[in-house]
Amino acid sequence: MNDFKFSGAMVGENFNNHVKEQLPFYEMVTNAVTMIVRNYLSENGLVYDIGASTGNITANIKELALSRNAKVESIERSEEMAKSWNGYGILHTANAADFDYKNFDVCVCFLVLMFLSVEERSNLLLN
C-alpha cells in the first residue's frame, strides 16, 4: 500500500468515483464517522481531519460544527489532492506527523492509517 500515490488520475472527481467504486460502503461509513464526531465534539470544540483527501468528512460535519461553534481543520499532505479539497473549515497542506496540534475534541483518521508505514503510524498516533 505504501506505493499508492494520491496524484494524477487519483485526485478530484476521479478520486471520489474510485473510492465509491472500490469501497461501496464509503458513504455509510462516512455517515457513521459523522455520528461518532457528534458524540465527542463539544461546544466551541476542535476537530482535526487527518488525510482529508477531498474533504468528505468535514463537508459531512459542517452543520454540526456550525451548530456547536466548533473549529474544523483538515490536514492533507498531497498538494495535488489538496487542490481538489471541497470540505469545510481550514485546510493545511502538511505532513500530519509534523503538524503542531492544538488540544482537540476529535481527530478523524478516516481511511488514512493504512497508507502509512508502521513507524509513521506510531509516530502520528503518539504525537
Written overview of the protein:
39% of the residues lie in helices and 14% in strands. The protein is an alpha/beta fold and 127 residues long. The chain has one domain (8-126): Vaccinia Virus protein VP39 (Rossmann fold, 3-Layer(aba) Sandwich), CATH 3.40.50.150. The protein is globular. 26% of the residues are buried.
In short:
The chain has 127 residues and is of the alpha/beta class. It has six helices and four strands.
SSE blueprint:
Elements: H1 13-22, H2 26-40, E1 46-50, H3 56-60, H4 62-67, E2 71-76, H5 79-82, E3 90-93, E4 106-108, H6 118-126
Features:
single chain; 127 residues; alpha/beta; Rossmann fold; 6 helices; 14% strand
The CATH homology group name: Vaccinia Virus protein VP39
The side-by-side strand order for the widest beta sheet comes to: 3-2-1-4
Number of strands: 4
- Output the structural class: alpha/beta
